[in-house]
Amino acid sequence: MKKIILLSLLGVSLVYSPLFAQKDSFLKDYYERWEQSGKYMITVAEAMPESEYNFKPTPDEMSFAQQLMHIAAVLDWHAFAKVDGQETQLRYDDYKADGLSKQQIIDVLKREFERSNTLLKSYNPNRLDETAKYGTMMRTRRQFLMLMSDHVTHHRAQILVYLRLKGIVPPKYWEFQ
Asked: Which DSSP category does 53 fall into?
């Protein structure tokens, strides 16, 4: 009887183990891509000289630094409010680029990718079909993960153009696959 109870407890603990999320094929594939996306994002951020972090292609655009901090802010919100379902708000005021050095901005970006990586490593795949509001629409947690990736890709593509406009060859995307 003790063996049955111990085996049952072991089984339950495995279900809630951080390794459980990696057994779900979608989460496993997503996590691998997400981790590489973060590495590429940091490499792109490092490619721009600090002296050009305030560069804007037009007056209406965000600067390179503002783009990075926008990515960090929305990453925090997507990961923790939308994917994890926490009661958090989009906090742009906590992610202002003004007065920050290149390294400080990169550190914020790294922190947000690391926080999302930690969340995803132990994410319960049973939650992927849960829904939440996104503006006027309802989306699943799985869709929020894809939106999180799309948002990073969208803004990273913009700053890759910023690099080109400054005569800087962007890091090779294929090296992060």
From this structure: T
Above 60 in pLDDT, residue 3? no
CA distance 165 to 61: 14
Give the helix ranges, DSSP H, for 61-140. 64-77, 102-121
Is the residue at 6 inside a domain? Answer: no
Sequence-ordered list of residues with C-beta below 8 angstroms from that of 145, at least 6 positions apart, any chain: 30, 83, 128
14-23, 46-55, 84-93: which range is least confident on average?
14-23
The residues near 130 (Cβ < 8 Å, ≥ 6 apart) are 85, 140, 141
Report yes or no on 149 lying in a domain: yes
Answering whether pTM is above 0.90, one says: no
Q: Is residue 5 part of a domain?
A: no
